[in-house]
Amino acid sequence: MGKEKDSFAKTIVTNRKAYHDYFIEEKFEAGIMLQGTEVKSIREGRVNLQDSYASVKGGEAFLHHCHISPYSHGNRENHEPTRARKLLLHRSEIDKLAGKVQEKGLTLVPTKMYLKKGRIKVELAVARGKKLYDKRETERRREADREARKMMKERSR
Does residue 138 contact residue 156 with C-beta atoms inside 8 Å? Predict the structure, then answer.
């Protein structure tokens, strides 16, 4: 019974801005190397993925500009909030990501950070940037869907 509970992923933070600014093409799950105070701060939900991105350098993947607030009960050994953190991926996944990022217009964006089986994971997405007119079109479509659901709800009453 305990194992079933552990298999579910508990979302800590979602990067909603990534879905607004990018077309998500493919997603990968990555582990992340953290210090003890970072883990405690993330479990408190004090993390921001908004302006963060990932890169592949020297056969390793890194997460940049992910702001993890200093731990509230930490001491002078507390971590630096926006340091680059190493992502844990298989060699084949890193090679695949490096190949994708070489394509024009593609980038690596973290979309979600979550707990899975007691470990903190990051969902990385290979994404293509949206133009302004794409963002407007997405907003128009979302508004139309909202109106349609509202009409269907009124009719079912």
Answer: no
